[in-house]
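ok so i was messing around last nite and threw this chain in just to see what happens. nothing serious, just curious
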Amino acid sequence: MPKIVAKSMYNKLLRSTYFASIMSRFPLLCDMDCHFLDAFGNVVLTAPRQPTNSFVLLLHKNEETRRLLERNRHDFLTGNGSDTGDHGYQELVHRLSLESETIGYLMLSACRGGDEDREAARATWARLARQGSTVSWSLWSERWKALPELNPQQRDAWRQTLALYAHDAVRHLESGIHPEFHTLPSLVRQVCAHIRDHHTEPLQLKNVAGILGVSSEHLSRLFHQSTGLRFREYLAETRIEAACKALEHSDRLIAEIAYESGFSTLSRFNRSFKEHRNMTPRDWRRRTRRIADIEAGR
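result:
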């Protein structure tokens, strides 16, 4: 059950004031924004709340430069790059995981190196200009020069610091909430299996409890204590996962995918999808297509 455990820890990190306090330290120490990304690479928490890195904010301003930012992050998340790429700047990233499942990523954004990065920054700007970017070199170089300058040893030190803080945050939540976090009771495993097998059908906690021969109150309490998730949260996540696969691998209508994934109405599906993936189903489909283009070198 590593996936449900990872999802539980992800939810706890989002609500944790301890984790938020850890993130808030980095901008004070290294003059870089600190982000927490979900397992799909979406930024879900930022310290400070309003990002201050002027170079990264510049990259968000048009399609060509935004795609550069996405491509660099995608290369790291898929293991195809060193940190988030070497295009004249770097974002330092540490993966948070439980067993083989990714919880998310702790990221410092962004920094630069010396002469080699300066040449790479100029080459990147020139390539994007040929592709239609309207950002001037004077503005690009001005924002680039404002990035914190770190040599390789300093970058390694910050990577290690990210790892230490991330490990501390996860262990803090594990030890404080559940002493045997990786062990789920047999009854809970049966519930998860039933949800996976029947998520396209109308499911209610009381009905599942009846099938398993226990009270709904006992099952609800045990499931939440063991996983950190409510029954309805795990059911929604299972349905969203099924919808994500369909959105990625087919061109079917979103409404059709919503109903086939177990949602009774399109509005409920859209609301749940935004809550679980921090974007709309349509944006998810577009994002997966862009990632496919990046992987294909288009």
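not much to say yet. The chain has two domains: 2-177, 186-295.
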